[in-house]
C-alpha cells in the first residue's frame, strides 16, 4: 500500500455544545479519489479546511507529506487584488509549473483570461477557481462543491479531467452522478466521526443504510441487556457482594453508553401544500419565439404540458432555460407565437436567484410573511416552529437572522417557504443547489409523487433521471426539442451526443424546415397502444391496491390497541414492520397504476 500523502487522525473540534468533529479520520495516498459525504452542517467543509491547513483542530494529529503540494478549492473564491482572471489563475502556479496548463484549462472552461473579477458570474468565478487549483497538478487536490453554478457540459468535462489526474483527490459535492464517476472510495462524516468505504459513491447509499440498521440493532440489544441486568440485580440469587458490585458497575457503564448514543440525524419532512386540481391542460405553447437584439434564444417552439407531467429543462448556462421557463409560465411574453395557461392554476415558484431575502429577517418572520406565528398547511393551522422542524431547523433558530444560515440551511428555508404555498404547479429553477444527499432524496420523492404538475430547471442528471417524464433541451439557432423520459433517455435519443457537442448541434440552414418544425413540436413518445401486459396490469392493479389497503387498515387497527405492546412486544414489532412493508407496496402499486393510466390517456387523447 502506498504511503499516505495526507493523514488526519483523531481530529476534534467544537464550537461549544456537541462537538462538530469527534475523532474524525481522513487518509489519502497518491491516486486516491475520495468522495467526502455527510449532512449539511456535519463538518465536511471544516474537515477539508483542516486538511488544507486553513483551520487548526483542538485535538488530533495532522500529517502532510513535507514535499507534497496541496491545492484547495473553497466554495467562495477570493479574487480581490487581481487585474483579470489570467493573473488570478497563474498566481496559483509554482516556479516549476507549466504556464500552458493554465491556458489549456481556461480554454476548456470557457474563459479567455481577460475577464475582470468584478464582472464574473457565479459560474465564471467557479471555473476560474477550478483552473487555478488544477493548473499546478498538485499532489493533493481538495475540492469543496466544484460543480456549483456549472452547466452540464462543463461538469461532464470536469469528470473526465479529474478521472485522468494523478493527484490524490478529496471532493465534496451534492451531485450524485458526478461523485459516482470520479470517486473510488467514500468517507462518510456522520455525528462527528468518519467511516470509510473502499468503493465509489455508487455503493454508498446501500452501505450507509446497512450501517444505520446495524447500529439500531446494536442499540436495541444494549437496551435489552440493560433490562436483563436490572432484573438480575433486583431478583437474582445473591452472590458475593464483590461480584454484585462489579455487575452494578458494568450496568452503570451500559446505561451511560445507551444514554450517550447520538442517534442518526432526523430527516426532513417535505410535503407540498395542495391546491384544488388544475384543468387537464396546464400549458400550451405554439411556435413561440424570443430574441434579445441579434441573439435568438427561442425559435418556433411548441409543447403541451398536461396535469401530472414533470418536465425538466436542461442546457448550457446562457442557453435560455430561464427565459423559456418564464414564457411558459406567463411571466414573460414571447415575441411571436402564443402561450395558453390552463384553468385553476396555482403556481409556486423557486427562482434561480432564490428571491431577495433580507439577511436581517428572522426565519419565523420569513416563513409567515410577518403574519403572526402560524401557517396554514393543507388546510391545517400549524405553529411556525413545528413547521420548521419538518425542515430540520431547531426551535431556537426561529429568531435567528437569515444571514446566520449556511448555504444548505438557506436552501431548506427557501424550499419550506415555497412548499407552504398552496399550488398545483411547481416551478423550480435549480432546486438541488446546496442540498445534502438526504434532503435531495426527499425533494426527489416529493417531485416524483406531486399530484400536480412540475416544471424544473436542473444540472443534476441523477435528479432529472429520477423525477421527470420529459426533457426539453436546446438544439442550434434557438431551437428546442422535447424528449420523452429523463436525462439519460434524452442522450440516448440524441445518439449519445452531449449538449455542448457543436458538431451534433449544427444543422444545415438549407434543411427541410417542415421536418425541423415537426421535430420540435412532437416529442418522441411511446407506442400507439398499450401492450397486452400493460393492459392486464392496468385492469388488475385496482384489485391489488384494494387488497393492500384493506391489509393496512387491519394492521392499523391491531396496533391501535394500547395493551398490544405490553401483551406481546415481539408480535407488536412484527406488525409495525409488516405495516411499513404494506405501505411501501401500496405506494409502488399506486405509482405503477398512475403511470399506466397517464400513458393510456395520452394514447387515447
TrEMBL record:
Entry keyword Transferase: no
SMART domains associated with the record: AAA (SM00382)
Cell compartments where the protein resides: Cytoplasm
Segments of skewed composition (Basic and acidic residues): 501-519
Keywords, ordered alphabetically: ATP-binding, Coiled coil, Cytoplasm, DNA damage, DNA repair, DNA-binding, Elongation factor, Hydrolase, Nucleotide-binding, Protein biosynthesis, Repeat
InterPro entries named in the record: AAA+_ATPase, ABC_tran_C, ABC_transporter-like_ATP-bd, ABC_transporter-like_CS, ABCF_ATPase, P-loop_NTPase, Uup, Val-tRNA_synth_C_sf
Family listed: Belongs to the ABC transporter superfamily. ABCF family. Uup subfamily.
Name this protein carries in UniProt: ATP-binding protein Uup
Source organism of the structure: Mesorhizobium helmanticense
Record lineage: Bacteria, Pseudomonadati, Pseudomonadota, Alphaproteobacteria, Hyphomicrobiales
Amino acid at each position: 500500500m502506498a504511503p499516505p500523502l495526507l493523514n488526519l487522525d483523531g481530529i476534534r473540534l467544537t464550537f461549544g455544545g456537541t462537538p462538530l468533529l469527534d475523532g474524525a479520520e481522513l487518509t489519502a495516498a497518491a491516486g486516491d479519489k475520495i468522495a467526502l459525504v455527510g449532512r449539511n452542517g456535519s463538518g465536511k467543509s471544516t474537515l477539508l479546511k483542516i486538511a488544507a491547513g486553513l483551520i487548526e483542530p483542538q485535538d488530533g494529529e495532522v500529517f502532510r507529506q513535507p514535499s507534497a503540494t496541496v491545492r484547495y478549492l473553497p466554495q467562495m473564491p477570493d479574487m480581490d487584488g487581481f487585474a483579470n482572471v489570467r493573473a488570478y489563475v497563474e498566481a496559483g502556479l509554482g516556479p516549476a509549473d507549466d504556464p500552458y496548463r493554465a491556458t489549456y484549462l481556461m480554454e476548456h472552461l470557457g474563459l479567455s483570461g481577460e475577464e475582470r473579477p468584478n464582472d464574473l458570474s457565479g459560474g465564471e468565478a467557479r471555473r476560474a477557481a477550478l483552473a487555478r487549483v488544477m493548473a499546478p497538478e498538485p499532489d493533493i487536490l481538495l475540492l469543496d462543491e466544484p460543480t456549483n453554478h456549472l452547466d452540464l457540459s462543463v461538469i461532464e468535462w470536469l469528470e473526465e479531467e479529474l478521472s485522468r489526474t494523478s493527484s490524490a483527490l478529496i471532493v465534496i459535492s451534492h451531485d450524485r452522478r458526478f461523485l459516482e464517476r470520479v470517486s473510488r472510495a467514500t468517507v462518510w462524516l456522520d455525528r462527528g466521526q468518519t467511516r470509510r468505504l473502499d468503493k465509489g459513491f455508487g455503493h454508498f447509499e446501500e452501505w450507509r443504510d446497512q450501517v444505520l440498521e446495524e447500529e439500531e440493532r446494536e442499540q436495541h440489544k444494549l437496551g435489552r441487556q440493560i433490562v436483563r441486568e436490572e432484573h438480575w440485580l433486583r431478583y437474582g440469587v445473591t452472590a458475593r457482594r464483590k461480584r454484585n458490585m462489579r455487575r452494578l458497575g458494568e450496568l452503570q457503564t451500559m446505561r451511560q453508553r445507551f444514554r450517550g448514543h447520538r442517534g442518526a440525524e432526523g430527516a426532513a419532512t417535505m410535503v407540498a401544500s395542495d391546491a384544488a386540481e388544475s384543468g387537464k391542460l396546464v400549458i400550451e405553447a405554439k411556435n413561440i419565439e424570443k430574441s434579445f437584439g441579434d441573439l435568438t434564444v427561442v425559435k418556433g417552439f411548441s409543447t403541451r404540458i398536461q396535469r401530472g407531467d414533470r418536465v425538466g429543462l436542461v442546457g448550457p448556462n446562457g442557453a435560455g432555460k430561464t427565459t423559456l421557463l418564464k414564457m411558459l409560465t406567463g411571466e414573460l411574453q414571447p415575441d411571436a407565437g402564443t402561450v395558453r395557461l390552463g384553468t385553476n392554476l396555482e403556481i409556486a415558484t423557486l427562482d434561480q436567484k432564490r428571491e431577495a431575502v433580507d439577511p436581517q429577517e428572522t426565519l419565523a418572520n420569513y416563513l409567515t410573511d410577518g403574519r403572526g406565528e402560524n401557517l396554514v398547511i393543507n388546510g391545517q393551522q400549524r405553529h411556525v416552529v413545528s413547521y420548521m422542524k419538518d425542515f430540520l431547523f431547531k426551535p431556537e433558530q426561529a429568531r435567528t437572522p437569515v444571514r446566520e444560515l449556511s448555504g444548505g440551511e438557506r436552501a431548506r428555508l427557501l424550499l419550506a417557504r415555497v412548499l407552504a404555498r398552496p399550488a398545483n404547479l411547481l416551478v423550480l429553477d435549480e432546486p438541488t443547489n446546496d442540498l445534502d444527499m438526504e434532503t435531495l432524496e426527499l425533494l426527489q420523492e416529493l417531485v416524483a409523487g406531486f399530484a400536480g404538475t412540475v416544471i424544473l430547471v436542473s444540472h443534476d442528471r441523477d435528479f432529472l433521471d429520477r423525477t421527470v417524464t420529459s426533457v426539453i433541451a436546446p438544439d442550434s439557432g434557438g431551437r428546442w426539442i422535447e424528449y420523452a423520459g429523463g436525462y439519460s433517455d434524452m442522450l440516448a435519443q440524441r445518439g449519445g451526443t452531449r449538449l455542448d457537442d457543436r458538431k451534433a448541434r449544427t444543422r444545415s440552414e438549407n434543411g427541410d424546415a417542415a421536418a425541423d418544425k415537426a421535430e420540435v413540436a412532437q416529442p418522441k413518445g411511446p407506442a400507439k397502444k398499450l401492450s397486452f401486459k400493460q393492459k392486464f396490469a392496468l385492469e388488475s392493479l385496482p384489485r391489488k391496491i384494494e387488497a393492500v389497503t384493506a391489509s393496512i387498515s387491519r394492521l392499523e387497527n391491531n396496533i391501535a390497541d394500547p395493551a398490544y405492546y405490553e401483551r406481546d412486544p415481539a408480535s407488536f414489532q412484527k406488525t409495525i414492520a409488516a405495516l411499513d412493508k404494506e405501505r411501501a407496496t401500496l405506494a409502488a402499486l399506486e405509482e405503477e397504476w398512475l403511470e399506466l393510466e397517464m400513458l393510456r390517456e395520452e394514447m387515447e387523447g
